[in-house]
Amino acid sequence: MIKCKAARLAVASIALICAGLSAATASATDRDAFIWAPSKTGANAYRLSAGVRLPGRWDATAGAEISMRAAPSGKIDPPDAPLRLWGLLSRKRGQPAAARSTQINMDFNALSGVGNIGLGTARTWIVTPSLDAEVRRNLSLQCNAYENHCRGPRLTQSARVIAPATRTSIVAHSHISDDGLSGLSRIGVEQKVGNLQFGAAVVDPLLAPRSVFDVRYSLRW
Predict the structure, then answer these.
(1) What is the largest CA-CA distance in the chain?
(2) pTM
(3) Residue 5 Cα distances to 2, 91, 111, 207, angstroms
C-alpha cells in the first residue's frame, strides 16, 4: 500500500513538473527558463536532466532526471536510479572577489523510494590575481518513503584552490557521519579541458591510501 501511494505521488509530481514546464515555457523570456542537460557519466552510461528555472530572490529549479547504462556487450543494465525527481533553491550574495552562496536541494528516486535533502553553503574569494579559493560544506539526510526510516545525517566539506587561467584545481575532502570522523577522505587534482574534466586523487590517504582516476564529460544548452 505504501509503495502504491508513493508511486502515485511520484507520477503526480511528474505531471506537475510537466505542467510547470508548459506554463514556464509559455510565459518565460529568453533567460534559460528551460533546463535541458544531457551528459555522459561513464563508458556506456548517459543521463538526461530536464526541468524549469524560476528566477527570483531565491533561484528555484525543479525537474526530472533519467539515467541509462549498458554493459560492454550492449545489454541494457538498469541503473540504481533510472528516474529521479529533483528540486533546488539557491541564493548568492556578495561580489565576485568574495562571494557566498546557500543551496537547498531535494531529490526522490521513484523506483526505490529513497529521498535526499541537503543544505549546502559555499564561500569563494580571490586569493591572488592568479589564484582563487573555495570552501564548501554540505549537510545531507537520506530517507526511504517505502520503508519509513532515515539514515543518520552526514556532513561533508571540501577546500579547493583554483588557477582560473589554466582551469586547474587542487581539492581536499573530509566528512563526518554516524560512522565517525574522517579527517581527510580524499585529496587530488582536477583539470578542465572544454567539456571534459580529468581527475586524479588519493582516497583515504591517512589510513589506507589508494589512487583513483576519472574523466567526466557534460554538455549543456
Answers:
(1) 60
(2) 0.61
(3) 5, 33, 13, 45
CA-CA distance, 34 to 64, in Å (whole number)? 12
The per-residue pLDDT for range 116-167, each reduced to its tens digit, is 999 999 999 999 999 999 999 999 999 988 888 888 788 999 999 999 999 9
Closest CA to 93 of 84, 102, 82, 85: 102
pLDDT at 46 over 90: no
